[in-house]
């Protein structure tokens, strides 16, 4: 079955699912494969649960007329998404970057949704599967699409750009993330800039932070929309407070690094005609979740939970911002940073040195990588495993402290909440 014919089936209900645990009635089920699963095996189950059709790529599983056999299910899903995107007569904003993608995407969405029917990437479903699913979730009355694109190897952003065909782009920053896949910081810059390459070739537009010299230098050949110069930073203690059109806006985001994320959302909202009042209301009502820059008050302490992800750039930014926070006693709990390859030992040592040269009252470093770093004073304690940290926290009586918790997703450092009251 070709893409156009498949699209006619999709267009009846506009639903696509890839997991039989969450099948919706009259959906199209795509039997994707993974390292540890074969979706073809669940085609009949999907039909029993209400799917109208199931798409498979192994002939043995085509057991009825409701099961569609294709050469490759994933490629078929991607082609269908691009075909659908090209039927949508709407602007699509694509964003990528080393840090702040998801927060910025959510801020853009809450601002634009005050005036438009928007559809944005759910969570961080920003890869070769998530992007097609995001596009296919856009319906007839969607007025603006917002697509987050992630990558850990070269050519991925270029591929996702071809699928998405964005009208506007934004890159949050270039940082030391996924160095194992990109090879170096220069590799990160080149790979993320694939979005710029697409926008230039297709004569599209880009939003640019004028304070980021790398972004400015990389976008000379593209029509640029710079951040609004009426956006000014006021303070971050603990939440970021900014000024726009000479009026203050107090966000629920912590860390000076979120100023750029807020500026992007305000600029994009203003560009698309959202009123100042609606922009202010949207930003002040947005509360971060999913372990991203959350402030949690326990009986005895205040926890700054930023444990969704970490890389050297975001770790340094978080530590710098936390060091400026006004608090009687500050404690830092840091977990290993993943996907750094040959740079891992060096980058973990750099972060450890930063903590040692700061005025934090205590530093807890957890994970196999941090366990190998050298520390200069007894304010730092290393733990090889989370269980070791957990035991220490339960035996310690931490009170009246503000605690930063940050580490890569695989460390799941949000678990410390069970040990700190």
The helix fraction, in percent, is: 25-40%
Give the oligomer, counting copies of the same chain as homo and different chains as hetero: single chain
What is the count of DSSP helices, taking H or I runs of 4+ residues? 16
Largest beta sheet: what is the strand line-up?
A: 8-9-7-10-11-12
Walk me through the structure.
- The chain is of the alpha/beta class and 421 residues long.
- It has three domains: 3-71, 3-Layer(aba) Sandwich (Udp-n-acetylmuramoylalanyl-d-glutamate--2,6- Diaminopimelate Ligase, Chain: A, domain 1); 88-285, UDP-N-acetylmuramoyl-L-alanine:D-glutamate ligase; 294-418, Alpha-Beta Complex (Protein-Tyrosine Phosphatase, Chain A).
- Helices cover 36% and strands 21% of the residues.
- The protein has 16 helices and 21 strands.
- It has helices at 3-13, 43-48, 73-87, 101-112, 130-136, 156-164, 179-182, 185-192, 194-201, 213-218, 258-271, 276-285, 312-324, 344-356, 368-371, 386-395; strands at residues 16-17, 28-30, 33-34, 37-38, 53-56, 67-69, 92-96, 118-120, 144-148, 168-171, 205-208, 223-226, 231-236, 239-244, 247-254, 294-297, 302-306, 330-335, 362-366, 380-383, 402-406.
- It has a six-stranded parallel beta sheet with strand order 8-9-7-10-11-12, with helices on both faces. A six-stranded mixed beta sheet has the order 16-17-21-18-19-20.
- The longest helix has 15 residues, at 73-87.
- The radius of gyration is 23 Å and the shape is globular.
- The model has no long low-confidence stretch (mean pLDDT 93).
């Amino acid at each position: 079955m070709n893409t156009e014919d498949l699209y006619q089936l999709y267009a009846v209900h506009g639903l696509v699912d890839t997991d039989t645990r969450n099948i919706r009635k009259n959906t199209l089920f795509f039997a994707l494969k993974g390292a540890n699963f074969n979706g073809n095996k669940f085609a009949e189950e999907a039909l029993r649960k209400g799917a109208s059709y199931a798409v498979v790529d192994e002939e043995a599983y085509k057991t009825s007329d409701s099961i569609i056999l294709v050469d490759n299910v994933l490629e078929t899903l991607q082609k269908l998404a691009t075909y659908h995107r090209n039927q949508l007569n709407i602007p699509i904003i694509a964003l990528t970057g080393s840090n702040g993608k998801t927060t910025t995407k959510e801020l853009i969405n809450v601002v634009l949704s005050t005036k438009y029917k928007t559809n944005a990437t759910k969570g961080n479903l920003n890869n070769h599967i998530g992007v097609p699913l995001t596009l296919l979730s856009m319906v007839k009355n969607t007025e603006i699409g917002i697509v987050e694109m992630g990558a850990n190897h070269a050519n991925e952003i270029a591929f996702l750009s071809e699928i998405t065909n964005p009208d506007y782009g934004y890159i949050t920053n270039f940082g030391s993330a996924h160095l194992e896949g990109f090879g170096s910081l220069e590799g990160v810059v080149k790979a993320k800039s694939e979005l710029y390459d697409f926008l230039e070739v297709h004569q599209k537009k880009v939003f640019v932070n004028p304070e980021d010299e790398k972004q400015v230098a990389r976008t000379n050949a593209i029509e640029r929309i710079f951040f609004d110069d009426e956006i000014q930073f006021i303070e971050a203690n603990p939440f970021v407070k900014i000024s726009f059109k000479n009026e203050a806006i107090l966000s629920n985001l912590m860390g000076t690094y979120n100023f750029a994320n807020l500026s992007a959302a305000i600029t994009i909202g203003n560009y698309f005609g959202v009123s100042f009042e609606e922009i202010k209301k949207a930003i002040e009502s947005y509360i971060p979740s999913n372990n991203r820059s959350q402030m949690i008050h326990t009986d005895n302490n205040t926890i700054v939970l930023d444990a969704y992800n970490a890389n050297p750039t975001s770790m340094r930014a978080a530590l710098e911002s936390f060091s400026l926070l006004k608090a009687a006693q500050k404690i830092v709990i840091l977990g290993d940073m993943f996907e750094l390859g040959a740079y891992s030992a060096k980058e973990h040592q750099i972060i450890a040195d930063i903590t040692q040269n700061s005025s934090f009252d205590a530093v807890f470093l957890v994970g196999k990588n941090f366990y190998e770093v050298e520390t200069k004073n007894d304010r730092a304690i290393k733990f090889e495993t989370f269980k070791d940290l957990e035991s220490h926290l339960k035996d310690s009586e931490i009170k009246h402290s503000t605690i930063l918790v940050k580490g890569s997703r695989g460390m799941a450092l949000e678990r410390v909440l069970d040990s700190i009251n």
